[in-house]
Amino acid sequence: MSFDVAGTRRQFPILSEIIGGRPIHYLDNGASAQTPLVVIDAVRKYETTGRANVLRGVHRLAERATESYETARAEVAAFLGVKPMEIVFTGGCTAAINLVAYSYGELLQRGDRILLSELEHHSNIVPWQLLRQRSGIEIDMIPVTTDGRIDLGRLPELLTPHTKLVSLAHISNVTGALLDVNAVVAAAKTVGARVMLDGAQRAPHGPLDLPALGVDFYVFAGHKAYGPNGVGVLWAKPELLDAMPPFMGGGSMIGRVTFAETTWAPAPRRFEAGTPPIGPAIGLGAACSWMQGLDWTAAHDHEMALVQRLMDGLQKIDGTQILGPASLQNRYPVVSFMLDGVHPHDVAQTLDSFGVAVRAGHHCAQPLMDRFDLDGTTRVSIAPYNDNADIDALLAGVRHAAKTLR
Amino acid sequence: MSDELYQDKIVALAKARTGAGKLAAPTRTARRDNPLCGDRVIIDVTLDGVGKIVEIGHQVRGCLLCQASASALASLAVGRDAAGIAEIRHDAERAIGREEGVLHEPYAAFAPVAAHKSRQECVLLPLEALKDALS
Description:
Chain A is an alpha/beta fold. Chain A contains 14 helices and 17 strands. Chain A folds into two domains: 253 residues, Type I PLP-dependent aspartate aminotransferase-like (Major domain) (Aspartate Aminotransferase, domain 2, 3-Layer(aba) Sandwich); 110 residues, Aspartate Aminotransferase, domain 1, CATH 3.90.1150.10. In chain A, the strands form five sheets. Chain A has a seven-stranded mixed beta sheet, sandwiched between helices. Chain B starts with a helix and ends with a helix. The longest helix of chain B has 15 residues. Chain B contains five helices and three strands. Chain B has a single domain, classed as Sufe protein. Chain: A (Alpha-Beta Complex). The interface between A and B is medium-sized, with 19 and 20 residues.
């Protein structure tokens, strides 16, 4: 069945905006996706009919807020195929990784090792470097193949009995390569290591079955998954959440506080100190439900048809080169390219004059840029609401940049 | 909007590559990175006995605006000391709308950057690197 792209577009009010006389061709979804009306309505409903703090109030607005907040937790859990109380709301994906690096990191000892890859976003590198400074753990790195995939052939030599965690991007935010999760989980198990996936680029492309994936931690951002800013998700196996000490201290995360001693609330409350991002979490719950209502087989086919159209079009422009898998197999609709003789920022700026929004630069993946000796790339990241007109406008802009800037 | 940004004068400055390259025996070298966009500028200078620039070379891994700015800077730098370079900085700041005053060439070419706040650091990065080299 073909995907109803026009119907999907109508659900996103911003896509009908005209700026400077041009429609918006929004292809920067990997940085922040747009938000459907159903999400905006959910947040508005909370702000206008149920705004209060959660968990502690006994008045009816507090009851409404708490119910909406916990419903959102259940919606996120259903999206991931897990139980609601295994979901921790955080301030974002970066905050979720930092939470794991701090709290799970407290369980690690000097000499324990964390295995990352060369293509990780800085948010899956720097928190571990901070942990290394604090506790003396070691960091190992899986190199990347020439087509922008994590080289899993190197796993046997890089996994050691001291490796406690393998933390990798489910989908690269630069190359669009999909990780072979089964291979990673199987290899990690041989040394007893846990596996965490950074799902920031995967979550916006449909529901997941985390128990089937066999991973131990999963994180993603709300704003990249059609939800509001300021909220993210950590999922972890219950036994891990139970074992992990708190990250931040404050209200809501305690059992009993005295000046002599404080006890902790069970997860997920233990990791949600203070007032959580209530409205954003409610919006994210709505976004997860919205995603669950989409036909993702058709949506994915549609997205990948756009990738093919993009790749075919770029190939016809002299001096373009794609960083990432050339085939559509095991990749998602994130496509980075270089235009010979034109800096990526100048490509992106030119595209803006065509109404096309993309991201250019190092994409918070400087080690990957160093690997390929690049200043940066121009990145096209596609969502189900994108259409042929978006890709064609982009190709026209790239042709213009090639003609005028070199 | 962006078409105006890449006007002929800026593109010509970038393509001129005035001062592009490495000096064989610089008195001072400084490198500046823009952590937000990844632009990188390395400036070499040779100085005379009173701190005036005799020769300047720049290596830019950055966008067209950064290249054009380095080129503009190199076209003015020889014969100036740190105070003279600070005057050029005012030219650049005026051109991108951060200071009031009359625009001077070649920095007048950067006037369209005033409307693009996120690109203004691209223009200033070579000046920052040269300031470091002279300090």
